[in-house]
Amino acid sequence: MTRPLWLDPDRFFPAEPAARSLARQLFAEVERAPILSPHGHTDPAWFASNEPFEDAVSLLLWPDHYLLRLLVSQGVPLESLGLRPKDDTPFETDRRAIWRQFAGHYHLFRGTPSRLWLDHVFAELFRIKVRLEPETADSYFDIINTALADPGFRPRALFEHFGIEALATTEGALDPLHHHRAIRASGWPGRVIPTFRPDDVVDPDREDFATNLHRLGELTGEDTSRWSGYLAALAARRAFFRAHGATATDHGHPTARTADVMKNEAEALFDRILCGRGRLGDAELFRAQMLTEMALMACEDGMVMQLHPGSWRNHNSWLLHRFGRDMGADIPTRTDYTGGLKPLLDRVGMRADFTLILFTLDESTYARELAPLAGHYPCLRLGPPWWFNDSPEGMLRFRRQTTETAGFYNAAGFNDDTRAFLSIPARHDLARRIDCAYLSELVLTGRLAEDEAAELAHDLSYNLARAAYRL
């Protein structure tokens, strides 16, 4: 017996009737506002080639580490989901069988954001009217795959259908940006821009760090065996990204530590690391110094800087060795922003022409550190709830812990930060509904006028992100 799939039109709104009515009214004003996706991890090759997406498994399951991590937690072998181990262990190759396996475990996602996003995709995009369950797995697989073969489901058509005004992808410092060039050369008007992420050439703990520095020198014609040449090469790559439309950089450091050492100390640190004579703590000090160097470059070239610290990447060593990176085993860690950012803020914190957008996985820092910092330093903006906090309750906690200290206008609006292209409208729908729910609460408790709430709904949905990312 199949059960209906139905999206409540008042989902995420308050239960109290007056608040629900006002939230519904505010949301109606922003529901169809253009989507800005200024930070994410979709593949620019999709929009360059505009080829049909392959199938439900490769599009909806494999790239989504939210799904993989919870399935692993319940003992589902990744081999049964079609993931190839690094050894010779057999793995499932039948896509229909993989989808059936996923459908058989879909109940595990009840109450999670993944379930909310996927149900939105299934109901709104594919017009499926029954829930994903073992009994409906084959029907889902056929409906989705048939739709993906239609021209209306090609990447560019979906981009336009979703109402996306601008979408930023994320590329490493060495990326040639071939796909972005192809998009521009095609004449298609969709705005897909890169984001400069230099982790591959600023993190000495990477096994390929020395190789990457050599390649950086080859790409730029700079001597990256010298501190001055290394900095010049990074500036050149930033300029290359800007020429392809980039407005922002992104930094996925383990911590928020920054440093501001003297030039001769920086040179000596760089030399020690490059020659393999690094001391204990040198790698973290180098990353800390490079955040300040990147901030100084941003003051020169105008790129917005984003910092995403606090994730212990690939915490599950067994999974890393067996399947590689990005399999859902990243775990949040405690993060110090007040002390960590002080060297950088002492240098550029009062500059209004520089923007540093801060994200966190450590919610305990919202009220204690992040909101007070952003509520004081002109350069700082708060990024939206990220990753594990990108959820209905996480978004409400963010508003409740930061608004009274930082206000709304020291935040950067919403970005979806996703690899899952089809979920972008669902994520923005959720964020807009939660913001309208929060605004209705402020109005009905006498803390905000209704006309101000209407203005804020537009600002939170669109205007703040456009300003923060200089789009």
Could you describe the 3D structure shown?
The protein has 471 residues and is an alpha/beta fold. It has helices at 17-30, 44-49, 56-61, 65-73, 95-104, 113-125, 137-148, 155-161, 178-186, 199-202, 209-220, 227-243, 263-274, 282-301, 317-323, 342-348, 365-374, 392-406, 424-444, 450-468, and strands spanning 35-37, 164-168, 171-172, 192-193, 196-197, 248-251, 304-307, 311-312, 331-332, 356-358, 380-382. It contains 20 helices and 11 strands. The strands form 4 sheets. The chain has a 4-stranded parallel beta sheet with strand order 6-7-10-11, with helices on one face. The chain has a 3-stranded parallel beta sheet with strand order 1-2-4. Helix 11 (209-220) crosses helix 12 and helix 14 packs parallel to helix 16. The longest helix is centred in the last third of the chain and has 21 residues, at 424-444.
